[in-house]
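Troubleshooting: if your tokenizer reports a length mismatch, compare your output against this known-good record of 82 residues.
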Amino acid sequence: MMRWLSDSVILPRENSFRHLGEQVYEIKEHTIPLRLFCFVHRGRVVVCTHITKKPGRKQLRNEIEKVKQLRARCLREGTLND
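Known-good structure output:
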């Protein structure tokens, strides 16, 4: 998945798409300090949840938790069904 994204027009660098654990990913913009958080659904759909300024360590844990909660809510409500 990372290779596909980094080869695309969207992400010019391989380290732009980083796995943060538990199906949570971060897309980095290297020219400005912004991070786009997302998760991958069934290995083929990238679902972007929110964007924030580059987080510190404590804030990063909070952002990861936010993505996990949004993912669980989408799955529970069936908004990500095929």
